[in-house]
Amino acid sequence: ESRAFHVRQDGRTVKKAVYVAIGTRLDGHREVLGLWVGGNESAKYWVGVLNEIRNRGTEDIFIISVDGLTGFADAISAVYPKAEVQRCIVHQIRYTTKFVSYKDIKAFMNDLKGVYQAPTLEQAEEGLDRLEEKWGSKYPSSVASWRNNWPQLSAYFKYPYELRRMIYTTNQIENYNRQLRKVTKTRTIFPSDDALLKLLYLATMDITEKWTGRDRDWSKILSQLCIYFEERIEPGDLE
Length: 239
Prior knowledge:
Elements: E1 2-9, E2 12-24, E3 30-37, H1 43-55, E4 63-66, H2 72-79, E5 84-87, H3 89-97, H4 102-116, H5 121-135, H6 140-148, H7 150-153, H8 161-167, H9 171-184, H10 193-208, H11 218-228
Parallel strand pairs: 4-5
Antiparallel strand pairs: 1-2, 2-3
């Protein structure tokens, strides 16, 4: 996920995105895997980012939750070919509702819940059919955004509730960004990329120092991971 900052470059102020990746280890503890100032966000760019993560020691990724970054899915396939990609449902909902008029938003959202809150994949697909039948002609872009990205939007339906709750949204990163905002809100413009990254790094060290707890359902989540990804988890990984 990204957050925008204003940075001086070549004598002018430009808006730059800073991307952050947060991972959850098999011991249940979270870790910031890196911060990157955006450039040309293509598949080639993301391959470089993911290779950096791998070279730092992240040997495998089971499931990755991501917002709709251009070229990211292709990059994941190249660097972590076994990883499942789940697009953030919260970001998808925000994008979808951009096209819906105020007078229809309540009814539209009620029907949309029948898609992303469905208990099973089959019921979710039935809900998507109903959504398209009712709203497809009036809001084609909204419905098409679900249809066109359905494989990555629906990956979480195969898992139990505890795992779904972890992966269907990038809320962990949003919470982290909220804490960063408290540190950076008084700095409207940064003199350079390095100055920006230095402040974010120091803030990250302070934030992650408080990340001592694990998900309240971690024991159950770990048991589920060991079943779904049995062939990729070695006994030593759990020590």
